[in-house]
Write a structure and sequence with these properties.
Keywords: Signal. It is built from five helices and five strands; from the N terminus they run H-E-E-E-H-H-E-E-H-H. With 207 residues, the chain is an alpha+beta fold. The protein has one domain. The strands form two sheets. The protein has a three-stranded antiparallel sheet. It has a two-stranded antiparallel sheet with strand order 1-2. Helix 2 runs antiparallel to helix 3 and helix 4 packs antiparallel against helix 5.
Length: 207
Amino acid sequence: MRLVQRFLIAVALVAAAIFVIPTPAQAGGNYMRVCFPVGETPWGTTIWDCYWIEVPVLGPKNPWPPECWVCDPQLDFWKDYVDPAVLHEFDALLGKGFGLLAESHLTKDEKLAEVLRAQATEVLLEAAAVVEKYPAELYRVGWVDVENGKEYFEPDPHPWLTGLGKELAEGTALMQQALNDPKNADLDKAMAHFDAAYENLAELAAV
């Protein structure tokens, strides 16, 4: 019975992971896909949540593994086990919040940028609440070809890839601290880490 339950959960997560890989919302923009491992199926296949984030420029992919030009950056914040359903909810909110922050960086409308940033802050705080009991810390970064199930890890990852993961993890950790200690919450400091994460992503995408 437990195996059947695991199978059904895995199937549900695989379906969800497929459907939460949205295509870029606006034609003509530059987008980069970022992926997060959610868990594994009973037969050992990794389940992924992936999100498109708009960036200023797309470059020739110099930091990419030579054998995988179609790969996407993958980020893992969880060395220890976390309930895949929890991760799936967290990833959805992180992807949404980070996407809103990207829009705030790219718009030339200052008032709209403020609105988008406020929305991003709210959503990223919601994301931290989902994983409140799981300390966020960068575990590893790498590359993944989701469609073909191939992963690539380098002994010395590109600093912009590492910086992307580290800043996202630190921003999430500060949001978690804010939830646990509202009186000393510093959301601006947390958002500064998310800003730095976006800057790393933009640099990575451009080279």
